[in-house]
Amino acid sequence: MEAYWKELALGSGLALVIALGIWGVDITPIAVIAGLAVLLQMMLSGRFAGSRKLEALALDARNPVKSMVTFDDIGGQDMAKRELLEALEFVNNREKCLKLGIRPLKGILLVGPPGTGKTLLAKAAASYTDSAFVATSGSSFVEMYAGVGAQRIRKVFSMGRQAAREQGKGSAIIFIDEIEVIGGKRGRHSSHLEYDQTLNQLLVEMDGINATNDVRVLVVGATNRADLLDPALIRPGRFDRVVRVDLPNKEGRLHILRIHARNKPLEAEVDLGKIAGETFGFSGAHLESLMNEAAIHALRHRRSQIKEEDLREALEKVMLGEKLDRRPLEEERQRIAYHETGHALVSELIRNGSVSSLTVVPRGQALGYMRQTPDGDRYLYSKQQLLDQIAIALGGAIMEELFFGSRSTGSKGDFDQAVEAAHQIIYGGMSSLGVVSKQHILPEEVNKEVQAIIGEEEKRVRELVSSHQTMAKAIAEELLREEKLSGVRFRELLMAS
Known about the structure:
The structure is a single chain. The chain is an alpha/beta fold. The protein folds into 3 domains: about 50-245, P-loop containing nucleotide triphosphate hydrolases (Rossmann fold, 3-Layer(aba) Sandwich); about 250-320, Helicase, Ruva Protein, domain 3 (Orthogonal Bundle); about 330-495, CATH 1.20.58.760. It has 21 helices and 8 strands. The N and C termini lie far apart (about 95 Å).
């Protein structure tokens, strides 16, 4: 009935405007005012890009084809999967939970670094619970017009319920990525209350004030900045469970590599375990990119199978970037070769077998580099281990100083690493200052202690390199000729010198 009266009013107004035009009245001002009114109405009703974006993101939810992503397709997140599966049992076994008096979960928050699989976990949750799935992001809700964000929140919840009804399902999962955009602490945007209104509407929807009995809605949020979220959003009764989705350990990385190698022909000699051991700090997205780049490298060299050298080349590309066409001057190349040899020499003397490769080929922001083999997945460091890191970082500069009489700007990044390691020693209570507080210690005291720590390591590195100058020169000259040395070849030269 409401639509009928709207159409009647619109038709009558249009007829009146046409009649005025026929009678010779200038209808330009009327047309301009009407156009502005329609534009304002479209803005307030959210019919622009953001609303269309929500519609597009919900298309998959209205598709009756079930998502093929399952928990078996996700590697490296065993703990997160266990926590999530436990939470999802409240959706699958609703009747049993009701008998025990368990309140249904309304929200699950996935917290972790980018690329760790939060979106995949949400999709797998939809498959596991046989729920309709609607995916969107925090940026889809907020615009400069008041009330638009709140209206879009209501709309996406309505989409989830409607999708579940159309697919004949009793539950829907609404996944909101980067939820900190709309879930940030209220009061931060003093000049723009649209953020607060949008969050308020999300809180209302999650409270279930407008809930229906036929469709159960579970909100799954994802963020890498949980510290920004409003306390009202993460309290029990809204986001009841917070699931950590951390970077995978070695076993997890191996699992992920095997998943992404399923459709790729690997040579029998390829050892994914070694690659997993050398990728500490990689997320699932990094590992997927590594396998993809390895396949591209094999294709570029017209191979039908992926070899270990393809994987190693891909590893360096993901870590450092693509090789560059620029070629430094010959004098610069010599400095780079001796610099990287210095790093490798100190590293190998401190920990045998630690050098994975070294090169003078520019890649990314580096003119050359020495890559170490990680000593396992390490989360804690002793004072000696941090001192060793400082020594390895100083090896390049000391090598340049001994062979060229001076240092270069190529050591700036190494010095930053050395200072950072020295700070860890100080604030870890392992320096001569004892236990200190960042808030109360003077910067001059910290700087003096950093200089003392690095100064001692400089003496140590100078003694190491000075006692192996002949060996270092032979390796540096070989590196200049070959441009790249593997860790195995480096150790052969080290033993032969």
